[in-house]
Amino acid sequence: MANSAQAKKRARQAERNRQRNVSQRSSMRTAIKKMLQSIENGDATQAQAEYKNVTSIIDGATSKGLIHKNKAARHKSRLNAKVKALAS
């Protein structure tokens, strides 16, 4: 339990940051699932549009330190491969 004013403030900040991170991580995962759903439906144009959106969201999460840059690159690479396979 936090006893000093500094520790109490850090606890408040940590909780606020945790809530923000949970929300952003959830929106990233939702966008990825939405894109995978459009790929599963066979809609190439929709998947292409979703890919642009997902890429932006993933890059934002990376710049905020939410996920590692290699994880972001891996997600984008795999999603792009699926979009290209659908287009051909």
Fold and architecture overview:
- With 88 residues, the protein is mostly helical.
- It has a single domain, classed as Methane Monooxygenase Hydroxylase, Chain G, domain 1 (Up-down Bundle).
- The chain has three helices and no strands.
- It has helices spanning 5-40, 44-63, 69-87.
- α1 (5-40) runs parallel beside α3.
- The chain is elongated, with a radius of gyration of 17 Å.
- The model has no long low-confidence stretch (mean pLDDT 95).
CATH level-1 class = Mainly Alpha
Mean pLDDT: 95
Q: Spell out the CATH superfamily.
A: Ribosomal protein S20
The assigned structural class equals mainly alpha
Count of separate structural domains: 1
Labels describing this entry:
85% helix, 3 helices, mainly alpha, Methane Monooxygenase Hydroxylase, Chain G, domain 1, single chain, 88 residues
List the helices and strands and how they pair.
Layout: H1 5-40, H2 44-63, H3 69-87
Helix pairs in contact: 1-2, 1-3, 2-3
Compact summary:
With 88 residues, the chain is mostly helical. The chain is 85% helix and 0% strand. The protein is elongated.
